[in-house]
Sequence to fold (233 residues):
Amino acid sequence: MSLFQETVIDCPSCARSLSFETVHSLNADRRPDLRADILDSRFQRTNCPYCGTGFRLDCDFTVLDVKRGQWIVAAPVGAIADWEAREAAARAIFARAYGAEAPAIAREIGQRLKPRIVFGWPALREKLVVGDLGLDDVALEAVKATVLRNAASIPGRVVAELRLVAADKNDLLLAWQRSYDGAAGAVVSAPRALHDKIAAAAANDGWTAFRAGFEGALFVDLKRELVRPRKAA
Ligand SMILES: [Zn+2]
Fold:
């Protein structure tokens, strides 16, 4: 099932109230069209009926994709400082829905699902691309770490996320994207063979400690190391 609910929001430009159909949970197996909308970066975009300003509502829903083995909590980008608490909450939801606390039939589905949490549209879209390409997302983060280490310059904070956007036979294409709406900046390519080598997880390949840092993690993102989690008040 894909569950929508009517939400009243304020236009970020003219501040008038408008109603918006927001998604609460999205089943990609039953609604591949909605998954495609996320990949096309048009999901939850609208124009204000009063002033015409186009904007995009931040994500705040779960995606279930049994076919590709994905269960993703798509959290708002602004909640990233709370990633530690959000990750714990997502882990608890997954345990009840598909994990240790779920009925046998759901647990069976859960064994084929990788639970994840992401913050914002570029990060969500990236996980869907990972699902399509059958990549290992920990290995992808290792590739990004390599790209960042070798980068002569890193774009400023406005264009702040390096995200996988596509791939061809030999290369993974990464783009610097703006966190809040996914607007794309410079593209960097990295050899797909590097991903494959790291994903093979050979002993003493130099990535053992990196992989261990994501052991059991739902928040599989370099930002795990970069964003200091806010402590609960
Ligand atoms: Zn408006």
About this structure: The chain has eight helices and ten strands.
